[in-house]
Amino acid sequence: MSSNIKISRICDFCGNAFLAKTTVTRFCSKNCNSRFYKKKIRDKKLLKSLEETHEKLKSPKSMDLGSNKPILNIVETCQLIGVSRTTLWRLINKDRIKTTLIGRRVVIARSDIYEFIKLKP
Fold it and tell me: Are 101 and 115 spatial neighbours (Cβ–Cβ below 8 Å)?
């Protein structure tokens, strides 16, 4: 049994008036339905991204520079001293800061960093 219902509706996506054949029809065409769905998914992703950003801003990842790690990598050393990587490598090449190789990795002893800071005029 088919019904001959014709209901005048307004599309939830484009806002145009159309005749619906069922009581639950929300969109005037498949095209409007697809666009609405894609917009809904895009908005969810955007909202999730904004929430993640707000969470990161609320609790910033702070580098614990006062920790008891005896050795630091290049990035941690840059943050501790407050210089760029280029400046740090320049200091290393001038032998103002002593480094140690562990495999291919360059590490710097915390005591060497403090010694460099004390010698700095």
Answer: no
CA angle 88, 75, 59 (to 5 degrees): 140
Phi, psi dihedral angles at 110 (to 5 degrees): -60, -35
First to last CA, the chain: 94
Phi, psi (deg, nearest 5) at residue 32: -65, -40
pLDDT tens sequence across 9-34 = 999 999 999 999 999 999 999 999 99
pLDDT of residue 119: 63
Check if the beta carbon of residue 33 is closer than 8 Å to that of residue 49: no
Cα radius of gyration rounded to whole Å, the chain: 31
d(CA 26, CA 33): 8
